[in-house]
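#lab-general

N.A. 3:47 PM
ok so I finally got the sequence cleaned up, no stray characters, all 265 residues accounted for. can someone with queue access submit it? mine expired

B.Y. 3:52 PM
send it over

N.A. 3:53 PM
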Amino acid sequence: MSFREGMSYSDYLGLDQILNAQHPLSTAHDEMLFIIQHQTSELWMKLAIHELSATCRLIAADDLQPAFKTLSRVSRILEQLNSAWDVLRTMTPSEYTQFRESLGSSSGLQSYQYRLIEFLAGNKNAAMMRSHADDKPALQRLEAARQAPSIYDLTIQVLHRRGLGIDRDVIERDVSVSHAANDSVRTAWQSVYRDPARFWELYELAEKLVDFEDYFRRWRFNHVTTVERVIGFKRGTGGTSGVSYLRSMLDVVLFPELWQVRTEL
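B.Y. 4:20 PM
back already:
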């Protein structure tokens, strides 16, 4: 069982770096939980970005079958991210206050990977890039994603290519801003949902996107619930209004027509 001359499990996974990347700044027992929860979430987000980027390439190439697989995987990743909040919620307000000051101005708001997921999904709030002004590589990556079509922009282009009559101003719009609900897109989805057998691939793609947004909404909801449970309505460490800001994010809809069409069928 000697791996002296070969690659070991630890070598392959880089476990020395990963398992020695936790550096609590206080003596509080629960700071280790806080660090590991956020580190593992960032790893899951890295994988989500990997899969979402692949999904965008597949949809752009009209290769929808493999895109169903990658989108399903992203939903499962979001399920893991949701479960992480369950572990963090075992920490009480009293326990968090023992090390909160050690965090300084660091905040989840500064997670460029979370922002990148938002941009890939279509929520392109350019103002949020200010949090990354001092991280040039992150800023460049975010700007590239902001200027590129989101997963929903690419999906709408597929609807257009398959003859479902999308307005030209939607197809030619500025993709660096968030998509706004459009009647022609809603009408296209009505056609898909009223005749799934005829538009089976588009029907399947629609449901995979709804799955993704469903899990994403749960992630946001679990975030705000956890924050309220642990710090109440105190301001966030990064200077946001905390719970109030997070609650405002619950109103963001990524794929509006896919939700609107359910009322009209």
